[in-house]
Amino acid sequence: MNMLNVTVDASKVPALPMERSPGYWQTVGRRLLRDPSALVAGAMILFLLILAVFGPWLAPADPYASSMLNRLKPIGTDGYPLGSDELGRDMLSRLIVGARLSLFMGITPVICAFVIGATIGIVAGYAGGAVNSVIMRTIDVFYAFPSVLLAIALSGALGAGITNSLISLTVVFIPPIARVAESVTTQIRSRDFVEAARASGANAFTIVRVHVLGNVLGPIFVYATSLIAVSMILASGLSFLGLGVKPPEPEWGLMLNTLRTAIYVQPWIAALPGVMIFFTSIAFNLLSDGLRSAMEIKQ
Amino acid sequence: MIAFLLRRLVYTLPIMLGVALVCFALVHLAPGDPLVSILPPDASGEMQQQLRTLYGFDRSYPEQFASWVWRALQGDLGTSIASGRGVTGEVLNAVGNTLRLAVFATLIGFVFGCLFGFVAGYFQGSWVDKAASITSVLGVSVPHYWLGMVMVIVFAVILGWLPPGGAGPGGSGDWVWDLEHMKHLVLPAITMSVIPMGIIARTVRALVADILAQEFIVGLRAKGLTDLGIFGHVVKNAAPTALAVMGLQLGYLLGGSILIETVFSWPGAGFLLNSAIFQRDLPLLQGTILVLAMFFVVLNLLVDVIQGALDPRIAR
Lengths: 299, 316
What we know:
The structure holds two protein chains of two kinds. Chain A is mainly alpha-helical. Chain A has helices spanning 2-5, 24-34, 36-58, 91-127, 129-143, 147-158, 162-189, 192-199, 204-241, 252-259, 267-294. The relative contact order of chain A is 0.14. Chain B is mainly alpha-helical. Chain B is 76% helix and 0% strand. In chain B, helix 4 runs antiparallel to helix 9, helix 5 crosses helix 7 and helix 11 (269-278) packs antiparallel against helix 12 (282-310). The radius of gyration of chain B is 24 Å and the shape is globular. The interface between A and B is large, with 47 and 51 residues.
């Protein structure tokens, strides 16, 4: 009976039940923290972001200062911890400072394509019918090009430069993102809760904002993180071909290009910028794998 | 089956037309006068006009497009501005070189990808599986042009075992099936095979894991079938998807070979595309992109049809 006699201290009673069942994103976060490869990916990306943001202050030397006397010094030379490039510039500093431009060139197209592609895909998926057919058949045409070919052909036609390679990479990534967005939206559209929302008088905009976006953005986001790895390789590849960033900017792909001539003199220095591209691409691929399994998305 | 084939064909035709339109539009996006690269700076207005008429640049876009498509259907892709030779011949020659490289790379990638994939799928969670997954992540992450450079550094510069580039001794363009030429093929083919290897290994691992978890495998095992017999069933079930992925990868390699061809100075389609871009040779650029993209479309169609033939459920 003393159960009933318990004095209730009002201040101790929580206004809301404390034990909330963990939300979706909380669960995803917890799973990510338990996944060793996702943690490694997170650490790698953090490292890259630090380089990108604080690079100019972290670099031991001026990445643009060339010196004809100190060209292609081997790794470990005094004052050149990772050697010097074909114009006598400090490799370590160029690799560090290069992170900003390289990551910018790799990530920006995916962000732009994410916004544009998701919009196109959601419109096509939600509208259905003829609108869907017109949009998706157009997307199919772009799908008919291998991505590397399309990127190179577009930048080749537009001409070299940072803006043009960003544009062409964005165009390359819109179709795959739009396709994912369209297929998820089409599935969501016929679900009962969307029908219920419509029956209760919600207009198309509200339905898309509340019900469709919430369900669609997750899968596209995961897909987009895996595209960043591809985009890094492609963006650097364009610079490697001479279609992207122009000298003397430090960008990893361009550095690979200009150092190709030095391959017989200092082969390992010539290979260094590629290590950074490889590192970045591994980081984003691991992150995307981790996110995919944490969010239980089946390919 | 016939209906499926027809349906696929009907679906592919508009895509082909769209691809041609994109190729055409792409090239006309290019800023600047396409004739600038061949006209001498002191060319007279009359000469400019003559050349413009010769290349058809004076007509309206729809007219140009229609006549380009019409002639392309008859196998004439125009004349290269830079070299003055027929685009069709140059492109087909280059595509042949690329195809040789891409087929070898796909075969290497397929064999090793299947090997890793099967082992990883059979022994899930073992160290072999982990090693195979790490290898496949590395395979899809590696910037292949950089890998090509590293291959050249190791096997050509340091060890001196293989030639660093070119398609044959002395830079000869003509292909012969002999040891010297094969040596030139080894490095680019291995470099190129890494991406399909990673992707095929991933796909096959997932397929095998999926198939082994299905009930009919338990049934077969209960029936007393040997492990080898079960393996046969797994292969049969995994084959259509694995082959489809292989076909698509071949297409990606054809279109994506430009970076690797640049590293190895391989005289293929990518190399041709590269020179067309830097010489602003519009007819050549247009033709190369068109042929490569069409190859990809046709390959996609073939993959679909073969998949349909192997697995009647798809064709329905």
